Amino acid sequence: MTLNWTQQTTDGRARAGLLRTAHGEVPTPVFMPVGTAGTVKAMTADAVRETGARMVLGNTYHLMLRPGAERVERLGGLHRFMDWHGPILTDSGGFQVMSLSGLRKMDEDGVTFQSHVDGSKHRLTPERSVEIQRLLGADVTMCFDECTAFPATHEEAAKSMRISMRWAGRCRDSFTAREGHGLFGIVQGSTYEDLRAESAAALTGIGFEGYAIGGLAVGEGQQAMFDTLDFTVPMLPQTHPRYLMGVGKPADLLGAVRRGVDMFDCVIPTRSGRMGRAYTSRGQLNLRNARHTEDARPLDAGCTCPACRNHSRAYLHHLLKCDEMLGPVLLSWHNVHYYQALMARMRDAILAGRFEDEAAALETDWAKDGEDDRED
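User: That's the sequence. What structure does it adopt?
Assistant: Structure tokens below.
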């Protein structure tokens, strides 16, 4: 049996389901913390588990360069290597390779590129990407594709999408079916409805265990992303999981769940934590601001993470001003915890048939200024 997903209930277009993998079950909707190079930045695997996270993301490009996929396999696979016992999804490396600009050359067969680390030359094809992800031991393997830049003309987007669809067929042919493992296709086509329809038809014709929506959150803006999801999501099978790649902020997640998306990943929670920003029930906070110098309150009164449970805003501000590494660690932990709590809250609301009421409450709270959160 390959990886599979079961829909439990719907509320409008929002869905609650269960993803079954070789390394455990994952309730959806789900947010996957990003462990690009075999670690969620500034967090131990135990810390990630304590946030409630059930699934994380690793990256083919970074792991193939350091320490190397074959080495990871010899050391027991990525699960053992990074001490993560739950499911892992691996990005194919396509986004990173395409972002190298002058360091890569693409042809019909694949991409030749220079490492951003040491300038060494590498070759990545659909077959090699799938092989690397198998060596890593990924529960969910992603098709190797070209992430279309934004903005792109219709002609540019069509050319990019069609080579990705040809590569998707080669990924399917080279994927080895194993119990609890699956391969996801990636819908491309920029913000053009006809190209998204052509891409979705091509992928469903090939057949995958799940379907991702790529090429968004690349500069098009939230409304254009939502508009694209409005016409793209209904093109995908209701019987399979839907994954929006590289998204996003809390409001992005809410809007995408409302439109029927099940899976997400993004670096925002940990990147923001390293920069001193926190997501809270009353909006964002910048803990570097001087207003927090003597603020004895917790970061978020309703949160049970260590940053909120054990420390004041004043202490977190102090850590950041002194460039103590504990500050980014605690804020990263808090943000990942907040994202997991948000996904659980949305899932519970879907199961209870009150998703829109919960969404309205979240949007009302986020509209409050986190930097002006005096007691009501």
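The chain is about 40% helix and 20% strand.
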